Amino acid sequence: PPRILTLEEPVLHMDHCIAFAVHGNPAPTLHWLHNGQVLRETEIIRMEFYQQGEVSEGCLLFNKPTHYNNGNYTIVATNQLGSANQTIKGHFLEKPFPGKGELRHWSRGLFSLQIYGTPKFLCVDSKALSFQVSIAVGLAAFACVLLVVLFIMINKYGRRSKFGMKG
């Protein structure tokens, strides 16, 4: 049956790595849990390992993990003869602004702010926001037209006459 030989805390090399070594014959299949939930591999979190005889060695790699990636990571090794698992705590970053709340969701002018476990909602008037955006766009367009007109006037009237030169 599979046996987990080593499971190490995250270390930063090129990416953060939770190193592991698993022994088993036949070779076990490996998967990970994050806080008890099945961990899906993505571009940010992926597993790389190689098989050397009856031992699989590798890393669970994290590309720029955040505080959302903190938690318990469990490796589960399974083959026809049984299964084994082991858990380690992964801590990557502190939560920003602890105790100040956390911006959870943004959708069509409605913000959900989590403060001490109770959701609070902030409403943003979409008409006022669109009015402010239209004012900003209008001012930017006016400034561009003004610059173009000034550029043309300087080029046309700012030159000295070629024939007004005295020889």
From TrEMBL:
It comes from the Eukaryota. SUPFAM superfamilies: Immunoglobulin (SSF48726). Residues 21-88 form the Immunoglobulin I-set domain. GO terms for molecular function: neurotrophin receptor activity; transmembrane receptor protein tyrosine kinase activity. Keywords: Membrane, Transmembrane, Transmembrane helix. It holds the Pfam family I-set. One of its GO terms (biological process) is cell surface receptor protein tyrosine kinase signaling pathway. The chain crosses the membrane at residues 129-154. GO terms for cellular component: plasma membrane. This is NTRK3 factor. The lineage of its organism: Eukaryota, Metazoa, Chordata, Craniata, Vertebrata.
